Amino acid sequence: MDRTSIARSAAFFDLDKTVIAKSSTLAFSRPFYQGGLINRRSVLRSSYAQFVYLVGGADHDQMERMREYLSALCAGWDVQTVKDIVAETLHHVVDPLVYTEAVQLIEEHHIVGRDVVIVSSSGVEVVEPIGEMLGADRVIATRIVIEDGRYTGEIEYYAYAENKALAIRELAEREGYDLSRSFAYSDSSTDRPMLEAVGHPYAVNPDKQLRAEAAERGWPVLDFSKPVELRKQVPLRASKATMAGVAIGAGAAAAGAVYLAARRRDHRR
To answer: How many domains does the chain have?
Structure first.
């Protein structure tokens, strides 16, 4: 395959449950607790929520509850404190969660000249450092309004569902990506618009609804099961023939987890 023929295509990876084995946001619950941003009860809820998210994923209603819960939770947090905590604990928290299959496919996309873009519903302060660690060229992530160095709790941009697809189209227009020759990967049925935006959609570790839809529409399904510390992984030197037959993706929102935490909080009132 001629490198120049695909130089302006891209591979769009959702993050949670596709590139990494957990919710990227909830993975930092303990460092946030140690940094004084959340209390012990929130840590325990997050641990339980991670389990629920891994088992069942998150539907639209759960994602909406997640959005409301997280925006309220982070209101008043000092932005620089969040950035410092993520920077200091990034490798300790995220390194063991990265799927080796995802790293290999990211490398393969780069080898043949595609840009790699991480697209995640998690906050940009978490997603950008993870994207840099993975070698991504760009990230698309949720942004919360900041005033006087603190989060207001109001969401400026929510990287979710159709918003993801819109952001991908806008980025493609700016960068000259041919979306018909681009790839997208997600675990969640809520990311159907993102998958439909490209010519090569892949379902990765899909939830029940996305697995059924992938079967109906003929979308390839990839199941990742080998999270290995990133620093121990050796970049794959793939041939062009290998790249032509392989692609991979990433998965969506950290959500269901926090949804249940919010539900339990509501019941206690």
So the answer is: 1
